[in-house]
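Long-time lurker, finally posting.

We've been working with Molybdenum cofactor biosysynthesis protein (Meiothermus hypogaeus NBRC 106114) and I want a structural starting point before designing mutants. I don't trust myself to interpret raw outputs, so I'm hoping someone here can both generate the structure tokens and explain anything notable. Sequence follows.
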Amino acid sequence: MRLLSINLGRPELLQIAQQTTTTGIYKNPIETAQVSTLGLSGDHVADQEHHGGPDQAVYVYSAEDYDWWMEKLGQALEPGTFGENLTFSSYGQGPVRIGDRFRVGPVLLEVSAPRIPCATLAARMGDPNFVKKFRQAARPGFYARVLEEGQVRHGQSIEKIAAPAQNATLLEVFDLWYDKTPDAARLRWILTAPLAERARAVYAERLKSIEAL
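Top reply, 14 upvotes:
Generated this for you. Predicted structure of Molybdenum cofactor biosysynthesis protein:
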């Protein structure tokens, strides 16, 4: 596995329905970046209610995901199109699990949550139906917390350090987000993994509602 692209976002205007907003989803490749517990130095995070912070400091997508999308959409897509900070060549063997760690040079990342698509992504892709397409594709990429800071550079090798096999996979967490009648036992199990706080709050609230019945 290798780091194929490092992508940094600057503030740009984006039209979402009838509203113009500032976004950092437009990412451009750079050769090297300093990565801290709050993400890449200089990267713009506009919607801080839903993105960024220590538990979602870095967003990662893979070249394998891009290959799938380019075949699906019939068009070329450059790294950074999905707003990811880091583009990996792949995620390695086996499913990605919450708690998996990836060593990129001196930087150590820990998988914390799948990306849930929103209107900003749809507007970025120029397709009002893209949220649905992204959901159906089940290729969410992952958010990660930064356990060890440092500088990353284009082309670095990546080492995967697998989480315990009992941890929920990225896709299990992703699918549960859309489950309108989640099982309490499944929610309890999902919550045993080191989820990002935003996701944890959502699943904990759903569990609380079920247990109150």
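Before you design anything, note these points.
The helical segments are 63-73, 119-125, 130-137, 170-177, 184-190, 197-211.
The chain has a mean pLDDT of 94.
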